[in-house]
Amino acid sequence: MNRFYLKEVLIISGNPAADRKRYKLMIRFSSDSAGKCDINVDYDESIIFRYETKDRMEIYEFQLTFKEKELSFRLFAWDGGSYVRLYSERWLASPVFFQFLKNTYFSNQKDMMFMMIRRKSHKL
Fold first, then answer.
1. 24, part of any domain
2. What is the pLDDT of residues 94-117, one digit of tens each?
3. How many domains does the structure of the chain reveal?
C-alpha cells in the first residue's frame, strides 16, 4: 500500500478573456505538515487540491468550480518519463476521496476556510 498526502492547493483563474487558464500556487505542504489555512477565491475561480503518493508515482487532483458547482477528479501516474492521465470510474470510493471529504471547508460569500485534518498514515 502506498501513502499519500495533500501536496498543494492551486487557484485557477476563470477569466474567459484569457487565452489560457492561470494557475496560482496558494499553499504547499510538506508530507508532515497539517493545520488551518485561509483561501481567498473569487466566484469565477476554481480550487485544485493536489494529493501525491509518498513515492511520487501518482497524483490525485480534485477541482472545485464554484460558478458551475462542479467537483471533478483527475488521476495521473508516472510512466517513467512523464505523468499520464488515467481514467477511474471508482474514484468516489477511493481512500484519497474519503480523506478529501474528511477535510473541513467553511464558506460564506466573502471567504472560504479550509482545515486539513490528518492522521499519521494514509494508505492507498
1. yes
2. 888 887 777 656 555 555 555 554
3. 1
